[in-house]
Write a structure and sequence with these properties.
Elements (H helix, E strand, L loop, with lengths): L8 H14 L3 E6 L6 H17 L5 H18 L24 H18 L4 E6 L6 H16 L4 E5 L5 H8 L3 H4 L10 H14 L6 H11 L3 H14 L7 H24 L4 H13 L4 E2 H8 L7 H9 L3 E2 L5 E4 L4 H8 L4 H4 L3
Parallel strand pairs: 1-2, 2-3
Antiparallel strand pairs: 4-6, 5-6
Helix pairs in contact: 2-3, 2-4, 3-4, 4-5, 5-6, 9-11, 10-11, 12-13, 12-15
Length: 353
């Protein structure tokens, strides 16, 4: 699943995992933060999956061999990925996932897990959030391992979620990846669904929203689920009685924006360098976007080439992405409005970077 911040990807990912577990599927879930290796994230969760599979008599021997594969995987790759921390339950088996090559060793490990899952007549699904932060060589290793499992008809797969640049990053990691995965675009709710998301929960509590109040919330939030939640909550808190009116929404908007500024937006803003903030402020000056990179550079009075490293850093941090070649867009809806609020006027344009 790919989409902007606040579109509901993580909520959908977690619901899919709950649904899978109810149906008897074995799952693990990881979130891929910046600057942490994929082996470090996978190893502890795959250990837990193998331990669970080892309790199924038909899969026990396969799962134990998988745990031996994990020991070899960790033992050799810890030299390269020093952040791997995981308990080991069995000694490694020479020649099994212990070559020190991530692509080959991860393939061998997932194949052993797939054999155990097949013996248990189940499936292992690895749910990964923020997948765009996985380094390209590690993404390539994961894709290759999954491809081998698919070729061997082993019941192991990945369901991931990430920012819009994820599709391009996966394609760059392995050219055949787009044939291996289905990409679901997760965006803002349509007008009818956005209105239902506000009206139906309120109706369940015996409260009505006037139509103009609903329209105002949908307009302010652009239909993004996270923002609908915030505006709905604050309108509920402000209103003294049913029905909730447009005046209630107008009064609640200041609190909703303040809450978003101090949490959803600010936590991302505080990770930026002064130069990065200035670049995003120039983007915001041009509007919601997307914008041509040259137009942003013109706003800052410098050549577009000089901003290449800054733009790359902002993409790596998940703040912007490139919908088409030469275009730049925010990954966070309404972030242009936030940047104009937090850096008002034009003093930012003349500030030293």
């Amino acid at each position: 699943m790919v989409g902007l911040r606040g579109a509901g990807k993580t909520v959908l990912l977690d619901q899919m995992r709950r649904d899978a577990e109810v149906s008897g599927v074995h799952t693990v879930r990881i979130e891929a933060p910046e600057n942490r290796s994929l082996p470090a994230m996978l190893a502890p969760q795959l250990r837990l999956a193998l331990l669970r599979l080892s309790k199924i008599e038909a899969a026990k021997d396969y799962a134990i061999r998988g745990l031996r594969a994990l020991a070899g995987f960790v033992g050799k790759l810890k030299l390269t990925y020093s952040d791997i921390e995981v308990g080991l339950d069995y000694a490694s088996e020479p020649g099994l996932a212990d070559n020190g090559d991530l692509e080959g060793d991860l393939t061998a490990l997932l194949e052993q897990i797939g054999n155990a899952a097949r013996a248990a007549q189940t499936v292992l699904v690895i749910f990964i959030d923020e997948l765009q932060y996985v380094a390209e060589n590690q993404m390539a290793a994961l894709i290759s391992a999954l491809h081998r499992c698919a070729q061997g008809q082993l019941p192991v797969t990945v369901v991931g979620a990430g920012l819009p640049q994820l599709r391009g990053r996966i394609g760059e990691a392995k050219s055949y990846a787009e044939r291996l995965f289905t990409f679901a675009e997760i965006g803002p709710l349509g007008e009818t669904d956005a209105k239902d998301a506000l009206v139906k929960p309120a109706e369940n509590e015996g409260v009505e929203l006037q139509q103009d109040a609903v329209n105002l919330i949908v307009a302010k939030t652009q239909g993004y689920p996270y923002f609908l939640q915030e505006w709905g909550k604050h309108a509920w808190d402000v209103a003294r009685q049913s029905p909730i009116t447009a005046a209630d929404v107008a009064n609640a908007s200041e609190e909703a924006i303040a809450t978003l500024d101090e949490s959803f937006f600010r936590v991302r803003f505080d990770r930026l360098t002064p130069t990065e903030k200035k670049y995003l402020r120039a983007m915001a000056q041009l509007g919601p976007g997307p914008h041509r990179s040259g137009d942003i550079a013109d706003k800052l009075g410098r050549g577009v080439q000089s901003f290449g490293p800054i733009r790359s850093n902002l993409i790596a941090k998940g703040m912007i992405w490139s919908p088409t070649h030469g275009d730049t867009a925010f990954t966070v809806p309404l972030f242009d409005e936030f940047m104009r609020r937090i850096m008002p006027g034009d003093a930012w344009l003349h500030a030293l970077s």
